[in-house]
């Protein structure tokens, strides 16, 4: 994992009290080393000190193993890469502590630094521009509203077509009923005329028969005008009876 990370140009720092905490395959890849004091009182601790000393490039000026155990507060053994990427010999050095306040800065110091900053004028006024999130939220809301309106319009159009179809079917039924009623009425009138004609013909035939019998027996003979009037009266009577029956049926319902 360390090889993969370092191959991408990323630096890694390992901080531990003992070099033995780091695996040898990782320790071998470390270039810059800063080693603080180690104390060895047992054979195992002395072995750890020797391993830490051998990890440095030796300096003929002092014994690295002895120097590790003799380091004081603020001292360390340091070995860094030179300009050619070669580890330098180990050197005994003093560590310069951070020259800073280990605490929060005062309000006066913060205000002074803000006022003297070159970007203070540029960023003095807070600008809350419309973010991409806000644009997307508004676009999604408009899209949802448009889809709802389209759905409502489609539902209204569907309902309108349904109502129009129902009205058309009702109109067709009414037209069919009216046509059937007209046909029945025409048929009734035809039957009425036929009945009146039959009655008038029957009256004429009866009158002519009586005249023939009376002519033989010497009885009274009915004139042609009288026969015609009687036939017309019979036809009119038939028509009036049928018309009256139709009116009564229309008012009180069909009667047999």
Q: What is the percent of helical residues?
A: 55-70%
Query: Radius of gyration over alpha carbons?
Result: 63 Å
- Order of strands across the main sheet: 1-2-3
Largest sheet: 3 strands, antiparallel
* Unreliable sequence segments: none
- Overall, the morphology is rod-shaped
- Count of separate structural domains: 3
Helical stretch tally: 7
What is the β-strand count? 3
Category by helix and strand content = mainly alpha
Distance separating the two termini: 109 Å
Order of helices and strands: HHEHHEEHHH
Can you give the mean pLDDT?
78
In short:
With 256 residues, this protein is mostly helical.
Report what the structure shows.
The protein has a three-stranded antiparallel beta sheet, covered by helices on one side. The two termini are 109 Å apart. It has helices at 2-7, 24-27, 43-54, 64-70, 107-115, 132-217, 224-252, and strands spanning 33-35, 75-79, 91-94. The chain is built from seven helices and three strands, in the order H-H-E-H-H-E-E-H-H-H. With 256 residues, the chain is mainly alpha-helical.
